[in-house]
Amino acid sequence: MAAPEETAVPARRRRGRPPFVENHRERILERAAVLFGTHGFQGVGIAALADDLGVSKAALFHYFESKKEIYDSIVLEALRGLERSVYDSLSDEDDPETQLLAFMRAHAQFFEDNYWKFLVMLVGFGGISPPLVDEVMEIRNAYEQRLRAIIRAGVKDGSFAKVDVDTAGRAVLSMLNWMARWYKPGGPRRAADVAAEYGDLLLRGLSPK
Amino acid sequence: MAAPEETAVPARRRRGRPPFVENHRERILERAAVLFGTHGFQGVGIAALADDLGVSKAALFHYFESKKEIYDSIVLEALRGLERSVYDSLSDEDDPETQLLAFMRAHAQFFEDNYWKFLVMLVGFGGISPPLVDEVMEIRNAYEQRLRAIIRAGVKDGSFAKVDVDTAGRAVLSMLNWMARWYKPGGPRRAADVAAEYGDLLLRGLSPK
């Protein structure tokens, strides 16, 4: 097996990104996410991925055992990144309304910043294989529970009306995740601003006060 | 080419459905939707579909020119059915709130009743090919406009708060369509009841009155 130095994945210039990606593994995941997100898992072979990266298949197998491991790693890393990014945006000292809006903005911001991995993650929920499935489900469940805890706290302290917590949590994630179907990065609006509008709508409701 | 009588697609018994499907074309679309929805478009060949239906490939080609035409027909028929079903549930004489809830319930009910075609339709929006793409986009746009018209009327007559109509319409469709990712038919709850809960949440909002 070639040493990492010899299997360097060329870092292509992309606007707004550093010209050199130090982490080869990360570089592979980024490009694989674009290809999987565009052509589907079955539509991308290891050879096509290696070709896209300008490396040999052996170089890829230095980092990953299989195409499936690459795919699963994208799903897992996107989910971990989402969790970290959203949790970092939350402060227990903030009121539930502020926390809910921070959650929604951070979720949408991460989606925009990690567009292709996020798309692959959403698709991958349905097709992930052991042994990663347990960890993925654990993180996802914890993530949903965190959101529900914010809503539950708001219902409890009177910041929110007495809504069904599970329904409200699902509504929030539905609005955020459905953005993957219509929002395209690079346009005039930030995803986080769209999320803030959803949050505002959800807080105020359609009925006049 | 064999006559339709000789290419009869066997109608298998399914709970809650008539034991005989008179329309062979419809029967092909139903089974193809299950297979495409389960394995993806690329994961299902004409041979596998014919085998599933217990007919020859020639029999399939009697009704459809290609696998893509089958796929596109599923997308188009699901969208037409959704439109018809939802519009039938609306009455101009009802107030905007009633119309909005009727829209949401009917959309979810159609999804539950046409689960696999609906899934294929949602995926197919991204990959549909000419000449159907124009018709599909036209129906979809008209459908979204109909929803927005209800919300706009409510904002105008004071039934609804002065919300952004496009954002509210997107929020409604996000909640409904994301159900395709987590709701499974056959469980204890009707999809229409879930939609009604979403509608109630959206109308009242999270903030206490």
Quick rundown:
Two copies of one chain form a homodimer. The first copy, chain A, is an all-alpha fold.
Average residue-wise pLDDT of chain A: 87
The helical percent of chain A reads: 55-70%
Backbone shape of chain A: elongated
Could you tell me the radius of gyration of chain A in angstroms? 19 Å
CATH topology of the largest domain in chain A: Tetracycline Repressor, domain 2
Strand content of chain A: under 5%
Number of strands of chain A: 0
Number of helices of chain A: 9
Number of domains of chain A: 2
The CATH C-level name of the largest domain in chain A is: Mainly Alpha
CATH architecture of the largest domain in chain A: Orthogonal Bundle
By oligomeric state, this entry counts as: homodimer
Sheet with the most strands of chain A? Answer: none
Work out the largest interface and the residue count of each chain. A-B, 39 and 39 residues
| Structural category of chain A | mainly alpha
First and last CA, distance of chain A: 68 Å
Which segments of chain A are poorly predicted (pLDDT under 50) over 5 or more consecutive residues? 1-21
Q: SSE string of chain A, helix = H, strand = E?
A: HHHHHHHHH
CATH evolutionary superfamily of the largest domain in chain A: Tetracycline Repressor, domain 2
